[in-house]
Every structure is written in C-alpha cells, then in structure tokens.
Automatic annotation (TrEMBL):
Keywords: Membrane, Transmembrane, Transmembrane helix. Its main location: membrane. GO terms for cellular component: endomembrane system. The chain crosses the membrane at residues 33-53, 65-85, 106-138. This is Sodium:proton antiporter. It is found in: Endomembrane system. The keyword Hydrolase does not apply. InterPro entries: Phopholipid_MeTrfase. It is a multi-pass membrane protein. GO terms for molecular function: transferase activity.
C-alpha cells in the first residue's frame, strides 16, 4: 500500500476561492433544510405504506431490527466523520480517516440511515426506495460541493478525487491522521442532525399500531 499523502494545509483565498467557500457554506446550510423537508415528507408518506411481510411477523420484525441497526450506524458514522471534518470543510482538504475511504462518507452514512428508516415499514423494497431517493435528492448537492472544493483546493483536490471514490468505500486506501483537532460544536450539530433519523422510529411504530388496529388505511403494500 502506498504511503499516505501529507495533509493539505489551508490555502490563501483569492476571489474565486472566497466565492467557492461561500457557496460551499450555503450548500451545507441548504443540505440541512433538505434533510428537514425530506423527513417531513417521509412523515406524511409512511401512514399509507405497509409491508407484505405481515403474514410472517418474524420477517417483518427482522427487517425492522436490521433497519434500526442501520440508523444507529448512520448516527455513529456521521459523528465519526465530524471528528475529522467538522468546522473545517471549506478551509482544509481532509483526506484522512473516513475521507481516505470515500470522498463523501457523511452522505454515505446518511444513505444508510435512509435505508434504515425505510426498513421500519418492514419492507426491503421500501428500504431500497428510501436509499435510492436519498441518493437522487443529494446527488446534485454533492456535485456542486465537489465543484466548489475543486475551485478552492485545485490540483490537490483533483489528485484526491482520482485516488478516492465518490462513495466507495475503498478499504485498501485507509490511512489515518496522527492528530485530530476536534470542533465540539460541529460535532454536536452533526449528532443532532443524525438524531432526526432516530426520531422517526417511534413514528413508524405508532403508524404500525394504527394500521394494525384499522385506524389508518394502507394504500401501497410492498415486499
């Protein structure tokens, strides 16, 4: 395995770089709004969805349990990413830790969380639809973020892009930082954002009960 490249220091900001940094910060703020609105859309949609696995209660419960594990992994994974990049994404090119495996590990864990939320219906198909939907929603933002990073960091980012997959993960490329500078507020914000995934779980349980009791009609059943 090749030796890890040295960390890239913050670069002096020209006019283009300053504009790119502002775009990047704006994209990060809009990403949080997208997560909020997507969560509201899910909350409105789930009362009308149900799994075909109801005939086999153990299958339904297993899918839910695996989905819950995915949500927990999503929250922990996002916090892990925040240890490396929290508060410094627009100022320093982070290529260590989870960012040595994937250019977008924070999004990767979010997609896992979306699948976990879908799995709370007990349906593997709905879990897959939620993951694909999350990818479709965030892909344009990812592309714009990468364009901004290319402007800010230039050749250093181009080299990083060539050796690191957009999602991955490429496990053979792992290398870690010798020291981490942690930004507590950024870490707390990332954890709070991730808890949105967990907050939807009780809602699914309530909907499950209401459907079983006949209080809510089911429009769509999927395997």
């Amino acid at each position: 395995m090749k030796p890890a490249p040295p960390p890239t220091a913050a670069l002096p900001a020209g006019a283009d770089e300053r504009a790119a940094r502002e775009r990047l910060r704006g994209l990060q703020r809009r990403r949080k709004l997208v997560i909020l609105f997507a969560s509201l859309a899910v909350a409105l949609l789930i009362p009308f969805l149900r799994s075909l696995g109801d005939w086999n209660g153990s299958l339904h419960e297993t899918v839910e349990a695996v989905g819950l594990a995915a949500i927990v992994l999503c929250i922990l994974g996002r916090a892990w990413c925040a240890l490396y990049i929290g508060g410094r994404k627009a100022n320093r090119l982070v290529t260590e830790g989870p960012y040595s495996l994937s250019r977008n590990p924070l999004y990767l864990f979010s997609f896992l969380g979306a699948a976990g939320i879908g799995a709370q219906t007990g349906s593997l198909a709905i879990a897959a639809l939620f993951a694909v939907g999350a990818i479709a929603i965030f892909r344009p933002a990812i592309q714009r973020e990468e364009a901004a990073l290319q402007t800010i960091f230039g050749q250093a980012y181009e080299d990083y892009r060539r050796r690191t997959p957009r999602f991955g993960p490429r496990l053979a490329a792992w290398h870690d930082a010798t020291r981490l500078e942690i930004h507590p507020q950024a870490l707390y914000r990332t954890i709070a954002d991730g808890l949105v995934f967990a907050a939807l779980v009780p809602l699914f349980e309530l909907v499950d009960w209401a459907q079983a009791a006949g209080y809510l009609g089911v429009v769509l059943r999927l395997p």
